[in-house]
Design brief:
Keywords: Glycoprotein, GPI-anchor, Lipoprotein, Membrane, Signal. The chain is mainly β. It has two domains: 183 residues, Immunoglobulin-like (Sandwich), CATH 2.60.40.290; 135 residues, Immunoglobulin-like. The strands form five sheets. Strands 2, 3, 5, 8, 10, 11 and 14 form a seven-stranded antiparallel β-sheet that branches. The protein has a five-stranded mixed β-sheet with strand order 15-16-1-21-18. It has a five-stranded antiparallel β-sheet with strand order 19-20-17-22-23. Strand 22 and strand 23 form a beta hairpin. It is elongated. The two termini are 49 Å apart. The N terminus is likely disordered.
Length: 394
């Protein structure tokens, strides 16, 4: 079988990957949905469970995690919470018989950390605010907490919905719509013989804009090719390297944990993908009839090496494409991707006229594929290391 071999080399360092785009066409329906379920009434309010679903295909919420805020419609207070806490208590001096957890008009809520005492937990809580993407790890794309609200009304008609929801994950970028009352959530008991439901439910939808998150792009991609003269002459396969890197502009920036990294690649030949090594893969098809986008992410064994290696760590993989002679060409950088996202943010690609093209004549030197791989990895690492040292020192 004739194949194209693509090596993906990811060079990571500290800081945040960002983009200038305000709309992501590769995940047009992705969002974070908040579901607020009123579970029971109390003497002066209600007990609710708030659940956050990360329905984005490949965009995580990374450390230090999400921060959720809103403005109460009346003079509500939070008597107590499980699975999360507010960052400030506020002025509770008017309460004589018991002090609420929070009396602020605009509370700010954060997730509890792993290891929180069991009697302060509920299901899907206590992840330090970290949520994985829906396509990569749906079981860890949900976060929940419970709160008891006072001075709030005790019926569906007297309860007022909070307003002005904000979500930082952990920085800016998300815009939340108004709370909307929806059909009460139904729950199935563990024996699956009975269905109960919330007394009242409302939803809030938050969408992401890369332009709001960071106007100045810092994630960059470089592309290179190595042509074996036999390969070029016979047109059987091509070896490419894609390098994704970003350097620290400020040495005080925190070192990011990329143990749950993912890569989204737009390439015209994903219909002909035959084999992938050391990475996981999911086809993304935001538009019917078009299969040109794939999502890649690492397996735990290799990610552990990446996490322990620090700023100079790298992971790599080979992607094998079947060559369709009706569409394949060496010309105009066809073998390279058109767009690359790292952890949900669009990287800056080289301009089209800078893409590596097939040479006019192949070299007289014949390199084995293995030598080409080793040479490319070594040169890429050396170049990236020099860039990182230069920027950190400057």
């Amino acid at each position: 079988m004739e194949s194209i071999v693509v090596l993906v080399l990811l060079l990571f360092s500290c800081s945040t990957f960002t983009s200038t785009e305000a709309y992501d066409p590769l995940d047009p329906t992705g969002n974070i949905t908040l579901k607020w379920d009123v579970m029971s009434w109390t003497a002066d309010g209600y007990v609710a469970i708030v659940t956050m679903y990360n329905f984005q295909q490949y965009r995580h919420i990374q450390e230090p995690g999400w921060t959720l805020g809103w403005t109460w419609a009346k003079k509500e207070v939070i008597w107590n919470m499980m699975g999360s806490q507010t960052t400030e208590q506020g002025d509770c001096s008017k309460f004589k018989a018991g002090t609420p957890h929070c009396c602020k008009k605009d509370p700010t809520v954060v997730d509890m950390l792993p290891g929180t005492p069991y009697n302060q937990q509920i299901a899907n809580c206590c992840k330090g605010g970290v949520l994985n993407s829906w396509a990569q790890d749906p079981s860890n794309a949900v976060s929940s907490f419970q709160l008891s609200v006072g001075s709030a009304g005790t019926t569906n008609k007297t309860v007022k919905l909070p307003r002005n929801f904000t979500l930082r994950a952990p920085g800016p970028g998300y815009t939340c719509g108004p709370a909307k009352i929806v059909r009460p959530t139904q729950f199935i008991t563990s024996d699956k013989r009975r269905v109960t439901q919330a007394l009242m439910t409302w939803n809030i939808t938050c969408t992401y804009s890369q332009f709001l998150a960071q106007k100045t792009p810092t994630c960059c991609v470089s592309l290179s090719s190595f042509y074996n003269d036999t390969v070029s002459r016979l047109s059987t396969f091509i070896f490419n390297s894609i390098i994704i890197g970003e350097t620290c502009k400020y040495t005080s920036s925190p070192i990011m944990n990329y143990s749950q990294w993912n890569l989204v690649v737009q390439h015209p030949n994903f219909d002909n993908l035959t084999q992938l090594f050391s990475f996981k893969y999911k086809s993304l098809n935001p538009y019917e009839g078009l299969n040109d986008t794939g999502m890649l992410w690492g397996v735990k064994f290799y990610n552990d090496f990446l996490s322990s290696a620090g700023a100079f760590g790298n992971v790599q993989s080979e992607i094998l494409f079947r060559k369709d002679k009706s569409t394949f060409t060496f010309d105009k950088g066809w073998a390279f991707p058109r767009r690359i996202y790292f952890n949900g943010d669009n990287c800056v690609m080289p301009p089209p006229d800078a893409y590596p093209w097939s040479p006019n004549a192949s070299s007289n030197l014949v390199f084995s594929l293995l030598n080409g791989v080793n040479l490319n990895v070594r040169n890429a690492q050396e170049a990236a290391n020099e860039a990182i040292k230069r920027d950190a020192g400057g």
